[in-house]
Write a structure and sequence with these properties.
Distance between the termini: 29 Å
CATH topology of the largest domain: Jelly Rolls
CATH superfamily of the largest domain: Regulatory protein AraC
Radius of gyration: 19 Å
Number of strands: 7
Strand order of the largest sheet: 6-1-4-7
Shape: globular
Order of helices and strands: EEEEEEHHEHHHHHHHH
CATH architecture of the largest domain: Sandwich
Structural class: alpha+beta
Helix content: 55-70%
CATH class of the largest domain: Mainly Beta
Number of domains: 2
Largest sheet: 4 strands, antiparallel
Length: 241
């Protein structure tokens, strides 16, 4: 099943939703960008005005600025997926949401994909610009940004369901585990293990809350050797976060 990125923008009323095991409330100006598979029920109020966009995760890379800032910006969006916009920033991003929806509905089919991609590029540039004023973004070298980007894309594609060791990802990226640890820490402020754990834990919470799966079923779905291994992994994550 293809992974999707969910984009939400609330401009009136309120909207309650479950994300990563917690309930959140979106109020006017709230924007959210997160993996759709990690978002549970979305319950808008009667007076809510909510813009919603779904975009394939494998096409998101084509929306990002081809600079180290693009990678750092994406990582900060992942760490702070819900944020508040106001003033010009809100007006601009709301226009972007409307523009993408318009392109999707009214562009001839032969050009629709590229037209929507162009609209999403503008949306991400404007969101990152607004996000940078709320959260501190750090620059990274082009080489570090490329490695970190590929690492996150592997996780985003669901690789963590089978592989949860830093050594595996380092090998796939043709670097040593120590070097991947250094790059991840410099670029994102977090270790590779943290990112692997984040993706895995969000999947576990979603499967338990919304998939109604037992711990044993979740362990099997995520390729843990047995329920004991699964329990130890959860316990270890709990202590390290």
């Amino acid at each position: 099943m293809q992974q999707q990125i969910l984009h939400l923008l609330c401009t009136a009323g309120t909207c309650r939703l479950h994300f990563s095991g917690h309930e959140h409330e979106l109020t006017p100006g709230s924007c959210m960008i997160a993996m759709a598979s990690h978002v549970g029920s979305v319950c808008p109020s009667a007076d809510c005005q909510l813009y919603q966009l779904l975009f394939p995760a494998d096409r998101q890379a084509g929306c990002m600025p081809h600079t180290s800032y693009g990678v750092c910006g994406w990582l900060h969006l992942f760490m702070h997926p819900i944020f508040k916009l106001e003033g010009d920033a809100l007006t601009i991003v709301e226009h972007d949401f409307k523009d993408v929806a318009f392109r999707s509905e009214h562009t001839p089919e032969a050009y629709r994909g590229e037209a929507v991609l162009q609209g999403m590029r503008a949306l991400y540039l404007d969101v990152m610009n607004a996000h940078a004023t709320l959260f501190e973004h750090e620059e990274a070298t082009p080489r570090s940004a490329d490695i970190m980007s590929r690492f996150i894309r592997m996780l985003e594609s669901g690789t963590y369901r089978k592989h949860r060791t830093v050594a595996y990802y380092a090998g796939e990226l043709c670097v040593t585990p120590k070097h991947l640890h250094k790059i991840s820490t410099q670029v994102s402020g977090r270790t590779p293990s943290y990112w692997i754990g984040q993706f895995t834990m969000m999947e576990i919470r979603h499967l338990q809350m919304h998939g109604k799966l037992t711990a044993k079923e979740v362990a099997s779905k995520l390729n843990f050797d047995n329920i004991s291994h699964f329990s130890r992994y959860i316990s270890r994550l709990g202590k390290s976060w």
